[in-house]
């Protein structure tokens, strides 16, 4: 397979004021496009052509850093755009998720605090995650373009904490960006869809 940049599932200004059109234009059209372009170049001759994106990420982990970084970021971003929607976020979860949050994470408020903390304490570039591992929901963080699938977990929500994701709108205030993401942007229906597919 070759990597391709998909259109955003909403208009560039649809997530304002929490994520500006300028941020989405740079992040999607420039940064994500670069992962696609570089990933396609690095895929050639890698021996992984024809594999699924998830397989490429798993099999290049620890063996082909350049391909892994670009394929991992492409995978992360394909979901990242869908993990957000206009008028999203907040604590009103679909029923099946609400029950699981209570059982595994100590409820929504504890999840919110732990998820924001994961993003704030990820040193340098990386991601904050909500993932399913061994049948339980866990909050994780990974550096750079790493995805929980290389650690035996299935991500159902991720927030990009690379500076290009928030610097135009929030400057160096990463905590404010993470709060805005959880409170106003998360597409819980998509999170539920991924959760249902993973169990």
From TrEMBL:
<dbReference type="InterPro" id="IPR019831">
    <property type="entry name" value="Mn/Fe_SOD_N"/>
</dbReference>
<dbReference type="InterPro" id="IPR001189">
    <property type="entry name" value="Mn/Fe_SOD"/>
</dbReference>
<keyword id="KW-0479">Metal-binding</keyword>
<dbReference type="InterPro" id="IPR036314">
    <property type="entry name" value="SOD_C_sf"/>
</dbReference>
<dbReference type="InterPro" id="IPR036324">
    <property type="entry name" value="Mn/Fe_SOD_N_sf"/>
</dbReference>
<dbReference type="Pfam" id="PF00081">
    <property type="entry name" value="Sod_Fe_N"/>
</dbReference>
<keyword id="KW-0560">Oxidoreductase</keyword>
<feature type="domain" description="Manganese/iron superoxide dismutase C-terminal">
    <location>
        <begin position="96"/>
        <end position="193"/>
    </location>
</feature>
<protein>
    <recommendedName>
        <fullName>Superoxide dismutase</fullName>
        <ecNumber>1.15.1.1</ecNumber>
    </recommendedName>
</protein>
<dbReference type="InterPro" id="IPR019832">
    <property type="entry name" value="Mn/Fe_SOD_C"/>
</dbReference>
<comment type="similarity">
    <text>Belongs to the iron/manganese superoxide dismutase family.</text>
</comment>
<feature type="domain" description="Manganese/iron superoxide dismutase N-terminal">
    <location>
        <begin position="3"/>
        <end position="84"/>
    </location>
</feature>
<comment type="function">
    <text>Destroys radicals which are normally produced within the cells and which are toxic to biological systems.</text>
</comment>
<dbReference type="InterPro" id="IPR019833">
    <property type="entry name" value="Mn/Fe_SOD_BS"/>
</dbReference>
<dbReference type="Pfam" id="PF02777">
    <property type="entry name" value="Sod_Fe_C"/>
</dbReference>
């Amino acid at each position: 397979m070759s990597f391709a940049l998909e259109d955003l599932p909403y208009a560039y200004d649809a997530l304002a004021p929490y994520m500006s059109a300028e941020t989405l234009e740079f992040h999607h059209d420039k940064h994500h496009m670069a992962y696609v372009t570089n990933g396609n170049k690095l895929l050639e001759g890698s021996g992984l052509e024809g594999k699924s994106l998830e397989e490429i990420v798993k099999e290049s982990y620890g063996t082909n850093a350049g391909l892994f970084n670009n394929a991992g970021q492409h995978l992360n971003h394909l979901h990242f755009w869908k993990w957000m929607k206009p008028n999203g976020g907040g604590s009103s979860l679909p029923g099946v998720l609400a029950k699981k949050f209570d059982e595994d994470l100590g409820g929504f408020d504890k999840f919110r605090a732990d998820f924001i903390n994961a993003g704030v304490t990820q040193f340098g570039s990386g991601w904050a995650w909500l993932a399913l591992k061994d049948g339980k929901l866990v909050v994780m963080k990974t550096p750079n373009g790493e995805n929980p699938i290389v650690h035996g977990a299935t991500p159902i929500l991720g927030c990009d904490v690379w500076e290009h994701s928030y610097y135009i709108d929030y400057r160096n205030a990463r905590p404010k960006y993470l709060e805005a993401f959880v409170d106003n942007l998360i597409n819980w229906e998509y999170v539920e869809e991924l959760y249902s597919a993973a169990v």
